[in-house]
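Handoff note, outgoing to incoming analyst
You'll be picking up this chain. Sequence as last confirmed:
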Amino acid sequence: MSPSTELPSGARPSTVRVLALADSDSYLKWAACLLDALPPGWTARTAVVRSPITPSADQIRAALNGSMTAEAEVLPARRLRRVLAEYEPDVVLLACTGPVVETLTGIILGRGGPRPVLVSGLPGISVPASERAWLFRSAADLFIVHSHREVAEFTEIARGLGVRGTVGRARLPFLDPAPPKARRDRVVFATQAKVPVARGERRRVLLALAALAERRPDLRPVVKLRAWADEQQTHRELHHYELLWRELVAEGAARSGALTFDTGPMREHLSHAAGFVTVSSTAALEAIAAQVPLLVLSDFGVNAEMINLVFEGSGCLGTLADLEAADFRTPDQSWCAANYFHDPVDDDWTAHLSGLVAQARTGALPVPVRLPYPGGARARRRARMRLEAPAAMEVISAVRQARQRALKA
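Most recent structure output, in case you need it:
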């Protein structure tokens, strides 16, 4: 099935239409992969809702790379009502950060008349399960996560909160093995915007990669960035690795050229990788799928705050000293089966979705329950303003990019 980006004309056809709305590069990539798995004959349209974390044109191309989604238009939230009226979707996939999901939900439900099936979820590792994630998405008819453990944990939270949505399971869509290249000579470090937080800890990671380059000239360390320093991400990155590296070189603490910085699809980087390292990133799962030995760094803690708790018992935890020695690991197979590498026949999200669409077309879709917004009314107003002031955000973005260019100069 190849999702169509063309708006149908004339009377409403029997085919099921899906409108996917994303707000960042990681959510856009997730949405595109989910659309690839829709039942045969369904059609889809994809859009990026303009916000402070809107991906650049290059990020959009990278997120859609390898998927059947041809393009994604960028639109302000105020145009959403018009798009809904034009496209008349049966399903709206809210592939966005929590506050944006909640704000867009209000726009969709405020239109009156028959409503589409609301689908949301989380694009990566979601252990431990978060009540806050459900609060933002409490009106969702289907909440998509990616392992048996996550389904059980989020279902228990839903039961406690009294929300009516179903938790569906989908294998993480980017876990297909990357075809190996003839030469595997890279060590790929996948950055994460949120952790580690401290500037000094990030410098330690870069210095360990530089030490690896000196000890093993046959291995080329590549820092795989989620975004360049002047681009936006799902989460704000306080200390960008690219800028920290320039500081280290200027200080004489590292040799210029020891590390390479790059963006682009992780799949391509892993096809050249002899080893992989991260502090906390879903890309670790991509490395496992590609059968690339890896390290999940434990130097800064293994806990919910570091977003790496799920890797306990995986056999992949290691230290910066292990990285310098190129001592990479292979994961425990029983851990893999319980965490994200389940049999694809266990996936049930499309079956749940088909049933919900059938309910919606007969008018039997339950009335959604919107729980109180985390942070209260003031936080809700702030989230809405961030979506409804695109002109101001463009000015802020331009100033930020100019500042980053000045730092590079």
